Amino acid sequence: MLLDIVKYGSAVLRETATPVPVVTPDLVRLAENMLETMYHAKGVGLAAQQVGRLESVCVIDVPQSCEEDDETKAFNASVKMPLVMFNPLIIAKEGSQDGKEGCLSFPNMGGKVVRANQVTCQFTDAAGRMQIITVRGFLARAVQHETDHLNGVLYVDLMSAVEKLALADKLKKLAKKNGGNL
Ligand SMILES: [Zn+2]
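That is the input. Now the predicted structure with zinc ion docked in place:
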């Protein structure tokens, strides 16, 4: 089932998600619907707040073609897509990368964000098993972007002042249309 994607300006994007104690069938269904919605919108990640929910869950599917180099592809190869992550927590970060990022809650927009190049993330999968993955490159960027969402943090918060200034008018218009929350 396709869900409505919440856009910038909506208050829910600034709320913090609540950890889920148990992965119930209803939550698995929510994650499946989030994946369907993400693929339909041609995104590579989606977090609960973006569909108006506050359970700590995000989904990610970064194709290997998104990675810049073969070394990163090889490093990430053991991580099976799509990722369905309940209660994700980044437990280690290493290095840095500077690259362009977009978000389904900010249609037709994008900007540069500095992120860690490698992250280790602990989460509960759809089967209720605890997992720990270490990923690099664009996939690491996606993991950071989605876990930020679950904490009410948006990628525009992390852009440089210059980068954000370039988007200021667009951001203001988008926020105004969707509830006015910045
Ligand atoms: Zn996003």
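The chain is about 30% helix and 25% strand.
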